[in-house]
## 1
Amino acid sequence: MVTVGGFFRVVACTTVLAGAMVVVPAESAGAVVAIAPTITEDIVDPNDGETSLREAFSLAAGQFGDVQVNLGDDDYELTRCGPATEDLNASGDLDIVGFGTSLTITGTGSITNTCADRGLIQISRAGAVTISGLELSGGQTVSQVMPWTSPSGTTDSVLYGSPVTVMAHDVVLEGLDVHDNTVAGAGAVVAVTTWASALLPDGVVELRDVEIHSNIGGGFHAWSNGMGGVLAVIEDSDISDNITGADHGVPQSWAAGAAVLGFSLVTVSDSVVSGNTVEPVDSSFQTGGLLFAGFGDVEVTGTEIHNNAGGVGGLLATHSTDPLDPTLDIHDTDIRGNLGTLVGGAWIGADLVRASDTTVSLNTQDGDPALPGAGGLAVTGRHLNLERLEVTDNHGQVGGASVWGDEQITLRDSTFEDNDGDRLGGAVLSQNGWDPGAVVVERTRFSRNTTTGAGSTGIGGASISAHGSVSIVDSTVARNSGDALGGLSVSSAIDRALLVRSTLNHNSASGPDGVGALLGGDGDVRLIDTTVTNNTADGVGGVRVGQEADHVGLYHSTITWNTGNVEVTGPARTESWSTVIGVPRPGTSNCVGVVHYNGSANYDTDGTCNWRSGQDVSGGPNPRLGPLRDNGGEVRTRLPDPASPLLDVLSAQSPACGGFAANGVQRDDPNGCDIGAAERP
């Protein structure tokens, strides 16, 4: 290693600094040149036998090989306030511009700017740049505009010239504390991958163990200059309490607390992004917290995204589904307390979206009521896989989540609870591509969601639809309330909507002619081993099948104690097997408009269901169902008591026996099986 300080003689080359010669030694090829200041005063004097911080940066700028600048634990103040455009370290910020291979700047002290309209560090280098361990504060700059064209062809502008700007092939920032800087531009820290070539095609930006906080003009911006940025990493970092937006000189649409643009892979792990704000919000794409835009994959794990505010409050990551089929993964992440004009919590979109073990709570959409946004979560893309999500206490046009998939939506083991929406409380899940795709919901709970909307948009629990098929299995829709519909709307345009081993209970609709529990729309609607109970409405509390449906199937289901149990308003044909309908709530009936064409071994209590088989019971006594409770299985059920007329009605050889009831009991009793969703052991 070659050491450069205040007393070295000339060995190889010189750099002009403030009109004088500064000695720079050079030794064997491949050696690392080490430079260390010897004084902390902000001076330039080549004749004093010392090396100031400015002189150390000038020495580094003159090197074409590997350079290490060690600042130790000293604190430095930049007090030479010369021209803003000065790039030779005579005054203003600290500059290193050149074609050297690698540059490392390290220390455990601080650099503070004391000059108006001057930054801290500006570096442009061909190789790799690492800055570590320093506290950087007091920078004041006006960024310059750089055109940036996204992979989809959209032209925008991004800004550079921030208090800390690093442009290099590889940029590594670690262990920094960057705070109380002001920039009319992109952010306190800007990192750009550049200088890509055939020999060095893929640039990297890494942010590790860094705090970027309390800056005006934004926190962190990183982008690839379009020549091959491959990887951006944010790890163990805290980006908090930064302010950006037009009020702070940042008019571009990509304003954000932290923005990462144009990389082929972005990973964020074990980090905190909180309290960042866009003021005012001029575009829905301005993001309080994290913004990712480009063509590549995104991974977010173990990260807290809290209390940010913007067009999208917490996280915006939407990539085109073509032509590179990007993937977006979010795992073990907490998105909480964010505020957005379009989406409060997060808007994520890609060809393939995978979200799991993530909490989305206490987020709010507060903007133009005409915007079809969401309080908690918006998800768009071709294939959407959502597992173990907790979406709670959010508010917006859609309170909990708005999920739109071109081909496949899969939702498993999740909870949507206590969300409040102006149009819909819990969630919208819609497979809206022209291809016959599918929506699959398994072991998921929609509960205590509400809506203040009136008319057809006032749905409390969830709206689930597909051009292809809908399957809702082992799931619960409970205690939701809305104007038009309390619980669940399902429809399938060309296939079927299935509810299997699920329970809809205590949902309510307050509007005129509302529906309490279930509204069936297009195509074929089928309930299998499903319980619908204790739902209320001005219209029908239980199940209403609309004009567009062509078939209704009720199989081993229990529909009881609703304000009206089943209503078919259109021409749909109905078949029922081993289903109990009744008792209805006082003043209402079990069946309205139901025309059965097939079925057997059914039971009603008022003779209104028009059964067709001799094994059906029409106008029977109270079926003696127990209370709704945990009787086994994934959902709560109403088990027939020991004296119920529903027990062992079907022959063990009947095709309607077999399989498992909703309470997890196998229907294999040689004495026969029971009518309804639950089988008595």
## 2
Amino acid sequence: MPDSANSGPIDRGEVLETERPDSQGGVGSNGSDAGSGRMFDLVSRIDQIIEKRSLDAFMIKGQISMKAGTFLVIIRPETPYDKEQYEAIRGAAEEVLGQPIS
């Protein structure tokens, strides 16, 4: 008889829980939670530019995500800082928006 906890679709919360970085430098981590919130701040600045310029947020964020290789929508305030991912997002945003992101 199958275990009900292991049958059926995986709960998204469970997937996210298993992908959280650990102190050994797990998924999406540089081995440290220092700078937590920096990723979210970057995406917030991108959102502000999009809003200020009245751009199509869905299209622009999609282009940035494709160039950066990560979905901006998954960045949350608690997302740990990852220098490589941060620079990829910033570079893609600067290219798509045609302006520096400070």
## 3
Amino acid sequence: MKRMLVFCSRDGPSSKAGSVEQYVYQVFSRIAAEGHHVVWVAPRAGRRKSHSVEFVKGIQIVRLGPRPLYRPLARMLVARFVKSGKFGDQFDAVIDCVIGKPLPLAADMESASDKEEVLPEVVPLVFDLDRRMCASDDPPGPVIAASKSAREVLMRAGFPERLIVQAAYGVDVDALETSNQAVLAPGQHIAVVGKWTRGLFWALRRLAQDGDPVPVRLPHTSERRPRVPRRLAPFVTSCANPEEAYAAARFGYCAEGAEAEALVLGVFGVPAVCPATEAGAEYVIDGETGLLYPPGDKRTLAERFRLLLKDDVLCARLAAGAYAHAQQRTWKRTAGLVLATIENLGRPPLELDSVPSHGRTPSGSHTQWPPILHP
């Protein structure tokens, strides 16, 4: 059994949880389900007036204080653990969820330790990194990148590619009803996910004027129906069950900010059209699992829609590619990569399922984190 102390500056799972909280919850709840001990240290959110401890899906969530005081309180907690002399006996690894600037946990651990003792290794889990930071001169330990863009930022910061483990966002395939028929028999409508934009209005209106109206389904879970232009209202229907709308769609459109839903569409064998943002390129492989278009280019968006409506062969090929891609991007696999990184601390670098290998610092030293700043 591995014992992990996870520091994340975002609060635990809730109805308003963002992508970072979802990642931490999905990954470490699966690790905890395998019998490992996980403690998630987070700041208080909302109107909580006192420290709180709760268990969610096997994760012990500890809230220290308000978010402005989270960093100093987290460092004080680590220093107290080290001074107790039992930090190494209580935890095997400390996970620092980096969103911009990392916590100097390794330096705090070394400065607080007044005797020779085995301290847990610090493993950064990077979501985003301050552009002004770079790797230290000392050999770094394993670094986990939560996305393709995080991996690229780490490489620009000077981290060797072989030390970066890319454990990207996934999808809960087991919780969704899937079948091969979704891949082989696409429907005839488009599932629109996310905020409606002027470009989307223009593209759908242009297709309707050219005699190719596209039936649209709006998957939403709230009672309030999203606002739809009056001219497009006859072609738009709402669906309270998103899975039902996804399973019967010919293709989907994921607006900016909702690109992650492309993986959910892929579980049902439905290709997605997304803007070519960093997130869009993270979840959609252009020409293989869906189509990308320049953000704000309404004419190209209309052509992407027309192409998927007219070309059955292309649509079927993208549907099969989206389904295969979603089966590889599961939360179970992501959790396995994170757990394997922690379990292999102290061992020589090894390959992890076609992911760049990782290593650690020499015995007796810890990951030099945070990296030094650029002058």
## 4
Amino acid sequence: FLFQIAHYCVPNIPANGWWHEWTFNYDVKVENNEVYLDIAEHEAKILVWLGDDWQPPNHPSEPVVESNDISQEKQQTDSSLNQNSELTQSENRSQ
């Protein structure tokens, strides 16, 4: 059983603007120096600042996450896991 904190507020983010969550590969917009994330037990988030003026790409397979929208973040995480699984399966077939 894994414990998960849904919609956890991370305060005191050093700068407002766009940040990239590196481990699960999605983008979030920080406002009022805070962001809301889903965090599972024993999980870390690595946020890399993209800037105030950075514009997210318009790829339908990579939805952008606003700091208060968890459902899109979950969808992005699920699609990343599926892509990684598909890559592993195709690598195993080619060996």
